[in-house]
Amino acid sequence: MRSAETPTRPLRRDAERNRDRIVEAARTAIASEGIDVSVEEIARRAGVGVATLYRRFPTKEELIDAVLEDALGEICDAAEEALELEDAWAGFTSFLERVFELHVRNRGIKDVVTDDQHGHRRLDAARAELRPLIAEIIVRAQSQGTLRADFTKEDVPMIFWTGGRVAELTCSVAPELWRRYLGLLLDGLRADAATPLAHPPLTNEQLERVRRPGAR
Amino acid sequence: MRSAETPTRPLRRDAERNRDRIVEAARTAIASEGIDVSVEEIARRAGVGVATLYRRFPTKEELIDAVLEDALGEICDAAEEALELEDAWAGFTSFLERVFELHVRNRGIKDVVTDDQHGHRRLDAARAELRPLIAEIIVRAQSQGTLRADFTKEDVPMIFWTGGRVAELTCSVAPELWRRYLGLLLDGLRADAATPLAHPPLTNEQLERVRRPGAR
DNA sequence: ATGTAAACGGAGTGCCCCCTCCGCTTTCTG
DNA sequence: CAGAAAGCGGAGGGGGCACTCCGTTTACAT
């Protein structure tokens, strides 16, 4: 799952240690200050100079990728565990809950799932791993008749965007408010609450374009 | 509703005209590029120098206030018209729809309703005007038995935050996708879909703190 | 018409941020 | 243990931004 190791000589011991410190510092810095933390701040937290950081990660985005890759991994774990629950609706809701808990613990996460700006090769790979899991969570709940039939996997990002926004805005004031929001939304996602929707879901291409505003 | 006119001499004719141009340019600039447009860009669109802009608005935030005040006014209009509909549920939904339409037309709006960073005196006044209207929209729909009883006016910002995020992210790709999101959410807001919620709504103080992260 | 205060514009200032350069230090190899 | 290569940090380049200074121009009152 991790990036292919090129057969170059391994890092020197101090470099290895610093690399770990940098990623860890970036994780906590992003978690507490959001994706806009300055590179200086991350380096300061890691106890290294900026040049050291830049030797390991040629650009700030690459560093962020490394952090967010782990976060996506956690989401994958949540999806896998959701599929182990017998009650598909419980699996569906537990998956969403786990993701939102992650959001609160790590403010930066929303920028993984949303802005795909920082979507490089490895992130794409993790996302590819996640996609079929999500599809399975959905069809399972639909075939058990609990999740509304017109809900699609392309609707999931929409839920992450919105719930993530609640979590992000309120995490310092009412860190669990997202549970209220999710409750309201889930009541609308149950099969027996369904009313025809006015608009179709995004297509995959549209989703790509939302995620990469820059891409031509 | 406008700010009190201090009894100073009125603006010279050219100054008055430029002021209008600046506000209008700021409106369209923010609508198309978001709240992060540079002051230079706004001045360029208005056909004036930056110094002219700064003479009229001592800070970028003051200028943004002037723009957003109008936007809030439009939201008030939407609320008033919603109250004229006989069917309270239709009023409730039409209010939300109008606000989201505004979001799409003017990307900047989300930053009024959300970040209260730019919340100065006049904005506060407009907000105070809006609050009772929203309360009335809600209790009316609840007393008609269509809106779930545990929904409160403090939940409305949450809807704006979330729907605004959908509108903002997808406005260039699927400008009406928010209708799908709103459909899902409304299905969860109907009284007969209601299931007990896991978390209470925000209190007013919490709402204030969400809006003014900076305020001590 | 004309004096004057108000208004104008664009060059300039200071700040912050991403990133690089380069002389010094540490680790690894034989 | 010694030489070489890899790693290190901090000063500084370059760019973008909000905002200001000041010599010139414009509108208005008499």
Overview of this protein structure:
The structure is a homodimer of 216-residue chains. Chain A is mainly α. Helices cover 66% and strands 0% of the residues of chain A. Chain A has helices at residues 13-33, 39-46, 50-56, 60-84, 88-105, 109-113, 121-143, 156-170, 177-189, 204-211. In chain A, helix 4 runs parallel beside helix 7 (121-143), helix 5 runs antiparallel to helix 9 and helix 8 (156-170) packs antiparallel against helix 9 (177-189). The longest helix of chain A has 25 residues, at 60-84. The first copy, chain A, is elongated, with a radius of gyration of 19 Å. The relative contact order of chain A is 0.11. Mean pLDDT of chain A is 88; it is low at 1-6. The A-B interface holds A 114, 148, 151, 155, 158, 161-163, 165-166, 169-170, 172-174, 176-177, 179-190, 192-202, 206, 209-210, 213 and B 114, 148, 151, 155, 158, 161-163, 165-166, 169-170, 172-174, 176-177, 179-190, 192-202, 206, 209-210, 213. The first copy, chain A, binds a DNA duplex (30 and 30 nucleotides) through helix 1, helix 2 and helix 3.
